[in-house]
Amino acid sequence: MKESIFDSHFLWGGAIAAHQVEGAYNEDGKEPSTADTLLVNEERFEHYGEYINQNKYYPSHKAIDFYHCFKEDIKLFAEMGFKALRTSIAWTRIYPKGIEEKPNEAGLQFYDDLFDEMLKYNIEPIITITHYETPLYLAREYGGWKNRKLIALYEKYARTIFERYKDKVKYWMNFNEINTLAIMPALGGGFHESFDDPSRFQRIYQAAHHQFVASALAVKACHEIIPDAKIGMMLAGQLSYPYSCNPDDVFANLKQSRQSLFFSDVMMRGVYPAYTTRMFEELNVQLEMKEGDLDIIKNNTSDYLALSYYMSSVVMSDTSQLKKIGNMSIGVSNPYLQTSEWGWQIDSKGLRIYLNQLYDRYQKPLFIVENGLGAIDILENETVHDTYRIDYIRKHIEQMKEAIQDGVELMGYLPWGCIDLVSCSTGEMKKRYGFIYVDIDNEGQGSCKRYKKESFEWYQKVIASNGEEI
């Protein structure tokens, strides 16, 4: 077999998140997080972060029951040849309200058992400290990340899990898709804001500053407690193109790109970039900082940049033409691209472009920790013929190869929802991403049995060939 473009340490695997797979939302001392208040479809964010109505169905409460089935699932991941699995720790399993003096031992033990099972098969745990799961108590009583008190609570939680899992976990990330805070603060920050309220930016960017300080303190703690570990930041990949070569469209695209890359600029470079002075003036934002905040951020930058990548968007200066086009993106349709069943435009070449942009900007390792195709899968004869998913991932792997040859330093590739899970954007089970089909529907009905899709064996060969056989 010829030498692979991917080096021998390249981390092939998959990605999931606690609230989208675990279920058991109130077992073994766990209390609700904001994710446990999410409904399905049109009602998804109706009472997000407020309360749980026992007469409603909440998909995260059961999810795919990974909490009880993880050994079976990890075995399937090992059969595919996974070298790494990204998942998250549910904050409320460790500190149920977020304010407790001592952690919940049952929650700590669950992740001990999970990581032990992964390591049994030589699967590297890639762990997100919090993945859209603010403790519900902190959201309701503290106002989420608008409140500076969450910095210390987060740091305590991070230090607890670093100490507990220092011999098991060597790759960490702080906040999942931290830049979504600017678009959907309910998900990223645990507090609601109306898009019609121009004063929302003051609260959003103040919350962002609190998360920057908390993240930097987590980096510092991680390096102290686990010197051989790497801790990165994670960005929701939002590649965009200008609608035309009209300078107004080009500049509109530059401004939109900066709204996303602002987060990585601070966390990768350690300083607030120069463009934020005018940006904050125009948005009427005046950040409150404590002495030492900027030094903490400057001295504790992220070791690598992790990113999700699903689609690209097109931006124009005529804002009346812009609309939601999927994955929390605003723009107009790109006539050169195909579209998924959920309206997300498929742009594999865009992955190469985006990886080059990010690496040119930061010169630090990049890690693709989410990528995949959400689709309606039909189970026939105990399998799914998901050639469309194979085609999607194959084309993105081809562009990863090109990016590496362009000079990009890429740590690994972890496709999203390697086993079917609850969709974050809609709460549906029918929007499936996995190589493994889980027999559960949108109402939580089904056997919960696992079935290998056609893509299972295909991805197995990809990993075995280190990306050469695709």
From TrEMBL:
- GO molecular-function terms, A-Z: beta-glucosidase activity
Enumerate the UniProt keywords alphabetically: Glycosidase, Hydrolase
Domain of life assignment = Bacteria
GO biological process: any one?
carbohydrate catabolic process
Q: Which SUPFAM superfamilies match?
A: (Trans)glycosidases
Q: Which residues participate directly in catalysis?
A: E370
- Residues annotated as coiled-coil are none
Look up keyword Transferase and say if it applies: no
* GO cellular component terms, semicolon-separated: cytosol
Q: Which family does it belong to?
A: Belongs to the glycosyl hydrolase 1 family.
The protein in question is named Aryl-phospho-beta-D-glucosidase bglH
Species of origin reads Coprobacillus cateniformis
